[in-house]
Design goal:
Family (chain A): Belongs to the leucine-binding protein family.
Radius of gyration of chain B: 19 Å
Structural class of chain B: mainly alpha
Shape of chain B: globular
Structural class of chain A: alpha/beta
Order of helices and strands of chain B: HHHHEEHHHHHHH
InterPro entries (chain A): BCAA_transport, Leu-bd, Peripla_BP_I
Radius of gyration of chain A: 23 Å
Number of domains of chain A: 2
Distance between the termini of chain B: 49 Å
Keywords (chain A): Signal
Protein name (chain A): Branched-chain amino acid transport system substrate-binding protein
Largest sheet of chain B: 2 strands, antiparallel
Number of helices of chain A: 14
Pfam families (chain A): Peripla_BP_6
Shape of chain A: globular
Number of helices of chain B: 11
Distance between the termini of chain A: 61 Å
Strand order of the largest sheet of chain A: 2-1-3-4-5
Strand order of the largest sheet of chain B: 1-2
Strand content of chain B: under 5%
Order of helices and strands of chain A: HEHEHEHEEHEHEEHEHEHHEHHHEEEEEH
Strand content of chain A: 15-25%
Helix content of chain A: 40-55%
CATH architecture of the largest domain in chain A: 3-Layer(aba) Sandwich
CATH superfamily of the largest domain in chain A: Response regulator
Oligomer: heterodimer
């Protein structure tokens, strides 16, 4: 009797151990999860994403392995340069998936490059998490079952900034935008947000060449038109030039405010925050949002030597969300992970009240309207934003009813 | 209202015209005298802006000393390059010096980017005009930044001086002689090699000067010359390769034209210069002010 019980106990324990072991050994292709950071390592967006994004993904991999010991040594990160060109992005994506056995792609600055890589990933059935690309086409007419849009998009920027500025009295606008997919889309979205809030356009928006250095013609035009807000949909180096010349022509003193479509911390750093002081923008995150964010940012800074931009932090969060989905699915197979991601609700230091919409793969999360502080109010280096308002996840993004997405 | 706005744009076009004129003037001097197609001109323009910025950061030098020093430094760099590298290619096909200067451009841009990122943690940096020139002035028909007026004025002055020296002085005569017939010039006891290096230095010095002038208007960044140089080459071609007067007049004209383009149909602003180039080349293959190759 006693012996029997012991045998039963031992065999039960053995069975349990086997079950646990089986459960832990996820079905991983070539026994490794490979995260591919497809980004701009050399061009205009390399500072706001680039190497910092690769480092962010590596940190996510490390933290994930620490939390899930059974994955130790089984998560790898590969960083590849797509040079912001759609054809290069397309080739590199295929190469990473076929030759380097990458199981997912993340980051993807530049809308055209993001769209191109998303097509490739769809044909190879590999999940893509677009963090730094902005076009709403990714979750509308160009959506697909393997593409997820993390962090921000043009609808959210326009909805956030257009609404906030117009409601604060900036009810007449003149907008200029760079003449390519991103700028055209953002201009449309921004005009819609302005008019919806009972603002008006003093004249039709002007498309500027892209890239462009001299914006004086448009600033002089604004001088003549006297709108309350000079809206610029330019990004990166072009935005820096617009803002520099906006100050040079003294538009602020003439009572013409500045509305910025897309703003990264690196743009503010390039010109000094006084040049941007008072301008409103919408961001999905910033490093000193709260204590949780600061803790993560400090860790990143220790590892990378610089504070994270919201794009880089987004890459960490997206990578972690993906890896957690791999753990839940116990597989890195594209279809299994997509299934684990769809409908997932979570909250981390970056994405608050986050929900992955199964219908269009828009990742919705709380976003923030911020105002750039003058330097004199900054408490430390990089302290550039004051939070004006939190836009709850449910209201921040394009409602599902308006989505043109059909998988 | 609209006529006034148009006039304002024409006036505003003179600012970008000033940059085109200064840059194409340098290119014209170098090509006209030395037959070098200096593709590195844009990078040297950027280097002018970057040097001014770096001098300010490292030694606290303000705009005025930099306006003098930075072009001299750029000219120095240019002369070293001419002696060390370009001079070895004289007598070879022009495509060799095009490739060399193009390669040097890529190298310079990436080098500056690395330096900026490691030293200043940004690859695009602000530079402010001197206090006396900051702010705007009401000209009656428009409120215009003082600094931009200064740019137009100084650029005109420099163009005038360069033209005068080359066309009207003994120095100019020696330069012209050493390029037209180096053998005979040498026979008069003139060291042609030194003059060639000097001319190259002056040409790139002008690019450096344009760079310093541009720093307070555009942000200082490694690729600031890349875009500008294409337009500048078009200006040189329209004006007539090597023609000093042609490059100055065309430079200002193209700036004004682009501003008018931006007024009527903004997306065409940057394309107008190439349309103009195509038209001019159809009618006058040697450019507006250029002499046909056989007449040289």
């Amino acid at each position: 009797m006693h012996k029997k019980t012991l045998t039963a106990l031992v065999s039960t324990a053995f069975c349990a151990a086997v079950t646990v072991a089986l459960a832990q050994s996820a079905r991983l292709s070539d026994n490794t999860v490979r995260v591919g950071v497809l980004t701009d390592l050399s061009g205009v967006y390399s500072e706001l994403s680039g190497q910092g994004s690769v480092r962010a993904a590596q940190l996510a991999a490390q933290d994930f392995m620490a939390a899930n010991p059974s994955y130790r040594g089984k998560v790898q990160v590969v960083g590849v340069d797509h040079q912001n060109k759609a054809d290069v992005a397309s080739n590199k994506a295929a190469e990473m998936i076929d030759r380097q056995n990458v199981d997912m792609l993340v980051d993807l600055p530049t809308s055209s490059a993001a769209l191109a890589a998303s097509e490739v990933a769809k044909s190879k059935k590999i999940p893509v998490m677009v963090v730094t690309g902005g076009t709403t086409a990714l979750t509308n007419e160009k959506c697909n079952k393997y593409t997820f849009h993390y962090a921000y998009d043009n609808y959210m920027l326009a909805n956030g900034t257009g609404t906030a500025v117009t409601k604060r009295g900036g009810n007449s606008w003149y907008i200029i935008y760079p003449n390519y997919a991103f700028g055209q889309d953002l201009n449309r979205q921004m005009m819609a947000a302005v008019t919806e809030n009972k603002g008006r356009m003093v004249t039709q928006s002007d498309a500027t060449p892209f890239p462009n250095t001299d914006f004086s013609s448009y600033l002089l035009k604004a001088q003549g038109l006297r709108p309350k807000v000079f809206g610029t949909m330019q990004a990166g180096a072009d935005l820096v030039n617009v803002v520099k010349q906006y100050n040079e022509f003294g538009l602020r003193q003439q009572g013409i405010g500045l509305g910025i479509g897309l703003l990264f911390e690196t743009d503010v750093a390039a010109l000094g925050q006084d040049a941007f002081a008072g301008a409103l923008a919408t961001v999905p995150w910033y490093w000193n949002l709260d204590q949780r964010s600061r803790t993560w940012a400090a860790k990143f800074e220790k590892s990378f030597g610089k504070k994270p931009t919201w794009a880089q932090a987004g890459v960490y969060s997206a990578t972690m969300t993906y890896l957690n989905a791999v753990a839940r699915a116990k597989s890195d197979g594209g279809d299994a992970v997509v299934k684990a991601l769809e409908g997932h609700r979570f909250s981390d230091f970056y994405a608050r009240s986050a929900y992955i919409r199964p219908q269009d793969h828009r990742v919705i999360l709380d976003v923030y309207t911020v105002q750039v502080k003058p330097r004199s109010q900054a408490k430390e280096a990089g302290d550039i934003f004051t939070k004006v308002s939190t836009i709850p996840a449910a209201r921040a993004f394009q409602p599902l009813s308006e989505s043109k997405c059909k998988f | 209202m609209n006529t006034q706005l148009l006039l304002i744009q024409v006036f505003n076009g003179l600012v970008s015209g000033a940059f085109y004129a200064l840059l194409s003037l340098g290119l014209a001097v170098i090509f006209g005298m030395l037959r070098i197609v200096n593709f590195m001109h844009g990078a040297l323009y950027m280097l002018g802006a970057f040097t001014a910025f770096a001098l300010g950061q490292a030694f606290g030098l303000g705009f005025w000393p930099s306006l003098l020093l930075a072009p001299l430094i750029v000219a120095g760099i240019g002369m070293v390059l001419e002696r060390g590298l370009l001079s070895r290619l004289y007598g070879l096909e022009p495509s060799y010096n095009l490739l060399l200067t193009f390669g040097l451009t890529l190298l310079t841009q990436d080098l500056v980017k690395q330096v900026m990122l490691s030293q200043y943690a940004v690859s695009s940096a602000p530079y402010t005009p001197p206090a006396v020139l900051s702010g705007v002035v009401n000209l009656g028909f428009v409120v215009f930044p003082k600094y931009r007026l200064f740019v137009i004025g100084l650029s005109l002055l420099i163009c005038l001086i360069t033209w005068f020296v080359i066309e009207k002085t003994r120095v100019g005569a020696i330069i012209r002689a050493s390029t037209e017939n180096p053998g005979v010039t040498r026979a008069f006891g003139i060291d042609v090699g030194k003059w060639v290096t000097g001319v190259f230095g002056v040409g790139v010095g002008l690019a450096g000067l344009a760079g310093v002038l541009a720093a307070p208007i555009y942000s200082v960044e490694p690729y600031m010359g890349a875009e500008l140089i294409i337009t500048t080459f078009a200006v040189v071609v329209i004006g007539g390769m090597g023609s000093i007067l042609g490059s100055v007049i065309t430079g200002f004209a193209v700036g004004v034209l682009a501003a008018i383009g931006a007024f009527f149909y903004p997306p065409i602003a940057n394309t107008l210069v190439f349309i103009l180039m195509a038209l001019v080349l159809l009618v006058r293959p040697s450019g507006l002010f250029g002499l046909p190759e056989g007449a040289r």
